[in-house]
Amino acid sequence: MTDAQPPIPERPLLRGERVWLRPLEERDLPAYVAGINDTEVGGMAGYPMPMSVPQATTWWKGRTDAWGREGYYFTICELGDDRFIGTTWLKELSLMHGNAELAIFMDHDHVGGGWGADAQRALLAFAFRNVGLARVQLTAFVGNTRAIRSYEKLGFKHEGVMRSSWRGARGLEDGVLMAMLREEWEAANP
């Protein structure tokens, strides 16, 4: 038996201009946990406490069993590479109501370089074109201004402030609820 990785597809199904998305795999979990345990990455993404690889493995096994029913969990890779640089999800999926929540975090070396925005554009295309959603929402810390600016540039609209809704490093903090509707996405991406 060999530990050979699957080939990197020349034409991945979910791709942006700089990244491609593939299902989150067990081999990604050490890098995923490193991001969660990084206060700048995981802390700003809303992870309130450290996680171990065994804890992440238990969580991941539950997600793979729920693939397509409760959500889609992707690893973000640079085009032409298969290494984890971040993760993006459609979670809390409701096909009946046509909506889901987007979540994302990038590893420390890929924060602020446009990698995450590119991954989100690919995920939004998947959400609206392939899954058939009518709405994608997300939440962020009010203080995570870099992420909020990125979401605004992608076309997400502010819907409200959720007071004292996140437990972060400084205790309870406000969160921002933002969303994009399919017709807004289609108008911006003909």
By secondary-structure content and strand pairing, the structural class works out as alpha+beta
The residue fraction in helices comes out at: 25-40%
Rg from Cα: 16 Å
Oligomeric state of the chains present here: single chain
Number of helices: 5
- Mean pLDDT equals 88
Helix-strand topology string: EEHHEEEHEHEEH
Strand order of the largest sheet: 1-2-3-4-5-6-8-7
Task: Detail the poorly predicted runs.
Answer: none
CATH superfamily: Gcn5-related N-acetyltransferase (GNAT)
CATH top level assignment = Alpha Beta
Number of domains: 1
**What is the strand content?**
25-35%
Query: How many angstroms separate the termini?
Result: 47 Å
Would you write up a description of this structure?
An eight-stranded mixed β-sheet has the order 1-2-3-4-5-6-8-7, sandwiched between helices. It is globular. α1 packs across α2. The protein has helices spanning about 30-35, 55-65, 115-130, 145-155, 180-190; strands spanning about 15, 20-25, 70-80, 85-95, 100-105, 135-140, 155-170, 170-180. It contains five helices and eight strands. It is an alpha+beta fold and about 190 residues long. It has a single domain (about 15-190), classed as Gcn5-related N-acetyltransferase (GNAT) (Aminopeptidase), CATH 3.40.630.30.
Question: What's the gist of this structure?
Answer:
The protein is an alpha+beta fold. It has helices at 29-36, 53-65, 115-131, 145-154, 182-188; strands at 14-15, 19-23, 72-78, 86-94, 99-106, 135-141, 157-168, 171-181. An 8-stranded mixed β-sheet has the order 1-2-3-4-5-6-8-7, sandwiched between helices.
